[in-house]
Task: structure prediction
Amino acid sequence: MSTRERKRSETQARIAGVAARLATERGIAATTVDDVSAAAGIGRATFFRYFDSKELAIASGLSEVGAHVLADVIAEMPASLGPLDAVRAAYARLGEDFDALRPMFLEQAELSRSSSVLFAWTLHLYVDWETAIAEAVEPRFADLADDDPRPRMIGALTMAAARLACDVWVADGGHGDLPALTQRYLAAVHLPGRLDKLTSRRGQTALLRTSDERK
Amino acid sequence: MSTRERKRSETQARIAGVAARLATERGIAATTVDDVSAAAGIGRATFFRYFDSKELAIASGLSEVGAHVLADVIAEMPASLGPLDAVRAAYARLGEDFDALRPMFLEQAELSRSSSVLFAWTLHLYVDWETAIAEAVEPRFADLADDDPRPRMIGALTMAAARLACDVWVADGGHGDLPALTQRYLAAVHLPGRLDKLTSRRGQTALLRTSDERK
DNA sequence: CAGAAAGATGAGACTCAGTATCATTCGACG
DNA sequence: CGTCGAATGATACTGAGTCTCATCTTTCTG
Result:
């Protein structure tokens, strides 16, 4: 990793961290980009070179536990597990360390739902997670066709389940057992083997078939 | 309905419609709130009394075909259908008239994905749809407990499937058959026939206990 | 190693989204 | 009518997000 790349990712992480901390401390509205930039030791213009919006930086900082960690944990799961089981196991694994993170996690979850602008950006971030999950489970599919929708389906459905579990947990004031709740919601997600039909209609990637055939 | 209420909803619809039209014609960035307000015959301040953000107004206008229509169609489906089947049938029903709407729908779908800000607000709107779907399918559950998550689960999972189908369709340039695509994605969504109960620390909440079939 | 090339940064100016205030107007209702 | 409360429009203000340009840093190349 070159010096340039390392500095860049360090700066990005620092901005996100500062943004999340300030937003947690004083609220989103009271946290200006100037504040974050100054606290992160960068210029205002540089801030926007790293994040498209203030909210995205905050949401990104709030979800450091998110996409990459989850993707890495998924990758570490036994190869014998199927895609869905691997995601469930990864969430279970993350849940083991949850107690220590609970207060922080609750605070951040409440923050991300406190402003509709921030919530919108959080949802936007979830789509990135979906993609990360999709990529992480890809190796667990045998005979995966190009543009096979199943990985993304896994990503989207499990994220939806995890989000709902988190919603319920937050609505309950964070008193419940989020990891267990998440497991139960995830248990409700199933991809039937039938989905194979989706991708192998006439032996090719039927879902994306297509303009060429029609023309 | 009083004059005041009628005018209010008329104004709201007019703003959303104008916002969507202008954004479609000239792009989002080139569409200012002043433009929309002027074209809608209202003042700038009034605009923000109806919508929290420019993007929300546009997204709202783009999705008139959305939540309410879908919810109404779900409600019209035969009572014999279970929640999931009702949603699938509703999408199928909407798909029947799709050919006429296809160009407009594609244009709007591409627009909503053209800007990450607008996309974030679109995702935010999808959550409203999830809620609308959840409410629409509620009557199709027997023995529905308070705070039963199954309706929201139906909403979230079907919206995720529909969104992915739309993504794939848009990525393909809108050449494919979106209604059929949506049906295939929706077919991949299942709530298993028998699920565990959720025990929360706060008490016991029936959760995901039975199949989605109405009994 | 020196200098060029490519990239990252900061400063400042600018547009426009979003908020707050206040006077005015409009609809509901007696 | 006349009054009250809600809706509106004008205005001013803060801050997000964009753009340009000069400067500095890393990397490439001879």
Chain A touches chain B through 46 residues (CB under 8 Å). Confidence is low (pLDDT under 50) at residues 199-215 of chain A. Residues 2-4, 7, 32-34, 45, 48, 52-54 of chain A lie near DNA strand D (CB under 10 Å from a C1').
